[in-house]
Specification:
- By secondary structure, this protein is of the alpha/beta class.
- Helices cover 38% and strands 14% of the residues.
- It contains 15 helices and 13 strands.
- It has helices at 45-56, 70-73, 82-90, 104-113, 137-149, 166-174, 185-195, 205-216, 237-242, 260-269, 283-288, 295-304, 317-326, 350-361, 373-387; strands at residues 60-65, 78-80, 97-101, 119-121, 156-161, 178-180, 198-202, 223-226, 245-248, 274-277, 291-292, 310-314, 331-334.
- The strands form 3 sheets. It has a 5-stranded parallel β-sheet with strand order 6-5-7-9-8, sandwiched between helices. It has a 4-stranded parallel β-sheet with strand order 2-1-3-4, sandwiched between helices.
- Strand 1 (60-65), helix 2 (70-73) and strand 2 (78-80) form a beta-alpha-beta unit.
- Helix 1 (45-56) runs parallel beside helix 14.
- Bound molecules: 1,3-dihydroxyacetonephosphate and iron/sulfur cluster.
- The site of iron/sulfur cluster (SF4) has 13 residues, from loops.
Length: 390
């Protein structure tokens, strides 16, 4: 028999710092929230969120991405993937406050697409996205110089995934490109290849490669990967000139965990299982899956599936659990054996939501996400090109 020993670990001052209350100098964005967050153990949090939301009435519109926790998603006026939420935010000009339960780049996109009088609030400023952070404005400007040296900027159209900062969206708009999401990437690439001969796809190499190869008939050799940490992206001018798709070396740390072994393992464990994965997964995972699509597609596919069917889903765990609970007549399992939450999506919790809603109800605007005017105008161009895609 073993007995649990107290851990001999001295907490660091930062470990004691309650997320969302103070500035963390080591965090890229900082996590300052002036005022007091309610305690997570407060049994009245649900009632407090409900009361603050009622007090705000039509002044507030709460958006919830599919990867949000159950405790948060129950307060969303609409739920959706990043494409649907961008549209929903744009279609609510009467709401003074848009509370975005999602991550930083989504809140930025909502700010860009809403009117100047509307204020977008992200309940925890530390809710970033590791993939979006893999492409900075400086790195992308440098990449464009490398493409210019190779003589290909005139024929290259940037296509940026929604999961990118407002700066990258602005770069895209300025250089004649469009934004795409996981539900319209093929349409965006079709459009881009009507405008030019090559695409610079930012920042998710997997969505770019999967769309080009699975949906557009390109080969893996048509794609090269630009590594911002290597001189000239690690590519020769000849390689850049020969490529059709120049993929940025970025990825999602959540979807990157799924492997070919996870697919083979689940097929062995559950005979007849349908493997359904998000296109942010690696190419070999997507190639081995039966169905591929955005979060919205995953939900709709499960709704249409017959009772008794078996599903292994490769996307974030909050969504998979909700889908499984919504369909007790179907067998729904998580594709990997280890859990796979998106840690930054999970930063938005009930204490932060209550704090944001109560602050707004008291007339205090907190955690506003505001994109500067110049960035906004070019980013909007790129987003509007996406919204106008056929
Ligand atoms: P979608 O909601 O567009 O499918 O994207 C998934 C995702 O990773 C969002 O961060
Ligand atoms: Fe970013 Fe991946 Fe999390 Fe989506 S799931 S917010 S892409 S880290």
């Amino acid at each position: 028999m073993t007995t649990a020993q107290p851990l001999d670990v001295q907490p660091t001052p930062l470990a004691l710092l309650l997320l969302g209350r103070e500035a963390d100098p080591r965090s890229e964005r900082g996590v300052e929230c002036p005022g007091d967050l309610p305690s997570p153990s407060d049994p009245d949090l649900v009632a407090r969120a409900r009361a603050a939301k009622e007090k705000l009435g039509d002044k507030v519109f709460v958006l919830g991405h599919h990867y949000q926790r159950d405790e948060v998603i129950q307060f969303a006026d609409v739920t959706g993937d990043s494409f649907k939420l961008a549209r929903d935010a744009a279609a609510r000009p009467e709401a003074e406050y848009i509370v975005f339960c999602g991550v930083h780049f989504m809140a930025e996109s909502a700010d860009i697409l809403t009117t100047d009088d509307q204020k977008v609030v992200l309940p925890d400023l530390a809710a970033g996205c590791s993939m979006a952070d893999m492409a900075t404005a400086e790195q992308v400007a440098e990449c464009w110089d490398v493409l210019a040296d190779a003589g290909i900027t005139d024929v290259t159209v940037p296509v940026s995934y929604m999961n990118s900062s407002a700066d990258i969206k602005a770069f895209t708009g300025k250089h004649g490109g469009t934004i795409c999401t996981s539900s319209n990437a093929k349409r965006a690439l079709d459009w881009a290849f009507e405008q030019g001969e090559k695409v610079l796809f930012l920042p998710d190499q997997h969505l770019g490669r999967n769309t080009a190869v699975r949906e557009m008939g390109m080969s893996l050799e048509d794609c090269v990967v630009y590594n911002p940490h290597k001189p000239n992206g690690g590519l020769t001018a000849e390689q850049l000139r020969a490529a059709k798709m120049i993929l940025w070396r970025g990825h999602c740390s959540v979807h990157g965990r799924f492997s070919l072994e996870s697919v083979e393992d689940v097929r062995a464990r559950i005979p007849g299982v349908n493997v359904l994965v998000h296109p942010e997964c690696k190419h070999e995972v997507v190639a081995a899956a039966d169905h591929v699509g955005s979060t919205e597609y995953i939900i709709k596919t499960l709704e249409a599936a017959p009772a008794g069917s078996k599903w292994a889903i490769g996307t974030e765990l909050n969504l998979v659990r909700r889908v499984a609970n919504a369909h007790p007549d179907k067998e729904v399992v998580f594709l990997d054996r280890t859990v796979c939450f998106c840690s930054t999506m999970n930063r938005i919790d009930l204490p932060h939501l209550v704090w944001a809603l109560e602050s707004l109800a008291e007339g205090k605007l907190v955690n506003r996400i505001q994109v500067d005017r110049e960035t906004e105008s070019f980013a909007k161009l790129a987003l509007e090109r996406m919204l106008a895609l056929p």
